[in-house]
Structures
1.
Amino acid sequence: MGKLIGGSWLDDTELAAAEATATDDNGAFVRAESVIRHWVTQDGTAGPSGEGGFKAEAGRYHLYAALNCPWAHRALIFRKLKQLEEAISISYVTPKRSDQGWIFDNKDPVFTDHLFSKAALHQIYTQAQADYTGRVTVPVLWDKHRQTMVNNESSEVIRMLNSAFNEFTENKTDYYPPEQRDEIDTLNDRIYATINNGVYRAGFARSQSAYDEAVVAIFDTLDMLDERLADRRYLMGDQQTEADWRLFPTLARFDVAYVGAFKCNIRRIVDYSNLWPYARDLYQTSGIAETVRHDIYKQGYYSKSDIRNPLGIVPKGPAIDFSEPHQRQQLG
């Protein structure tokens, strides 16, 4: 993946000595934390972290995202749900990373850096902070007025999109309602640790014990969620919340990628009596199908890897139809 150190890009070869820091002493994968943590607010006051001065305005902010990244997928979903396509512009990096990390293809209108025509995302990071040190990740929320990054933590970006821009959208739905926040947070914490990040802990494990621990936790939580969804349409009841949309990107990738590429193969999502129709229900929410690219997911997760897929062969299957009727309306 490479990394910026003091504003200089080091590719994976140059970072070979630091590669061990991606796992703990037991061989378990450890995810690096996001660094840029400012908040867009309705009046520009400071948010829970970072500094103030980022007022919600139509046309002021730009989102950098990747179609294959589940963390960026969260932001794509909330931009779509909240009908903010006109208020917040977007650029996509290419699905396949190079020795420069996430890159653009400025000859392809889909994968062009529409702001600066940069070749790589790390150049966006150093444009904001010349001496930046850290991983270069998506999503990134960029402020066109101050010419800097606002935030690169997906869980915080979606909360900004959820509420800060209500003046510029007809969808005023609050997907993080105050009366449910404690329960949503508790559910989010478990889903993140055991499912969202859990599939990576399984796929990137460097020991049998680390893999076993991760994969058992994944399916313990999936089993719990399947039972929870037996008598409710969504995780919190009859209304969609942030918890649903933090889970969905992993469900969308699970059977086409994580089952095979990451050995998360105790069960498939299609084997669950409630989770599978629930996933289809979310997919069939207006506009969400446009954010899902199963072909790109397979290309990414089955890309050539000395550890996971040394020949880089991408499977044709599985054939999964998220557009099948889900019959979940009766639970609403």
Note: The chain has two domains: 3-168, 178-331.
2.
Amino acid sequence: MTSWVIPLILITPLVLALTILFLKPLRNLHIYLTLLYSAIHLAASIYLINFQESFSNYFKADSLNTIFLLVLSVVFIAVAVYSISFFAHKEEEKHIERSWKYHVFLLLFVASLDGILLSSHIGMLWVFLEASTLFSAMLVYYYTGKRALEATWKYIFICSIGISFAFIGIILLSIGCIGGSGGEIELFWQSLNVNAKHINPFWLKMAFPFLLLGFGTKMGLAPMQNWLPDAYAESPSPATAIISATLVNAAFIGVLRVHKVMIMAGLGFYSNTLLLLMGFMSLLIPAVFILRSKNYKRMLAYSSVEHMGIVAIGTSIGGVGLFAALLHMIGHSLIKAAFFLNSGNIFCLFHSKRIKDVTGLLKVSPANAWLWVASFVGICAFPPFVTFISELLIIKELLGKSIILTIIFCVMLTAIIYGIARNVISMISGDPRHAESHGDDKLPLTGYVPQIVLLGMAVWLGLYIPSFLLDMLNNAVKFMGE
């Protein structure tokens, strides 16, 4: 069935971005248009969950991507609401003339994510993945300083290398499709899955590592994660929130779709092994670098690498592990978005991103202090947050595979939790430095509500997973095995 909703969410942000570009002198127009589209996007996502339609042959909603669309919608609307207060704060007033650019590229970035998620052709997914790099790079460069420029070029350079790896993987896959026993096979995901056993296994095995490295770069998997700390540290906090919570998910769906082809081809053990290896590498690096973090946004970036490693490990286990990986992805997106949004409040209060400059947060702003602690509790997978359930399921399944790997997994997580806890405690405790400079830095309600709602949803899912979401997760796991 042909959908009118898919072109709506792909084209509308382009129209709104052009409207903002031509009517930028109208104050706050960009804010209202972004809010409007975030509401439209949420409604469209709910529609596509219930009516999994397609548009042409290149875009299709299915049991897998509708989960990611829903997460994107929730995070997007939270970021749109939070941006109202963030860019109105006096700390951001010196950049107010550039705020319309932020909203333009935010809209285009969301459109590129929709393209990635809904693409039914590997080549189309690759095109939108490249577009997401360009649009998000402009968000990273928002402050235009020397550090922002360095972070932007590093982001573009590393992600371009990753995209190049993915392109090589697509070429190798194409060779396997031409030289397979079933004749020439199209590069649509459905065709690849149906004809997976006819793809030349040699070329498929050659293609998968390149595709995994390519998509894994944008996902933040080691060893291609180096762009995350700089990009996350230098971009505005609402931009960091949506990049950290949704871009990694969009890249993850590319990994999942290629992994499914491997499973259908009878090469699941091969792809599972590589996913497991990259997953543990992605735990090792944060375990080392979080302890040395001096910037709280960089600390959260390394935490993202950790959680992508957890997701990769859960995916490699399959079955309940895959269910847990998808659930963990949802929890991570909600909590990490709240964490980064709250980091924006802390920056507005202390005018610094250095951990040592932030002390006495509990005295300066109790609300932000408790949100900071709640985000820490959630991202470190303590109950009652949903991440506790997902990590517990992954540990249980991993224990059935290997006791040694389970011990390594738990030791690395413990080291990461210690590193984050040490920094969080130092930031909220003690007496504030230069306390007199924080007294008039009051934040409006829109600076708190999005984080409260996101964290509340993560707690709700930890206590009770609604039947519709449970069905979506089970259908996604089933879809991966079909």
Note: The CA atoms of residues 219 and 248 lie 4 Å apart.
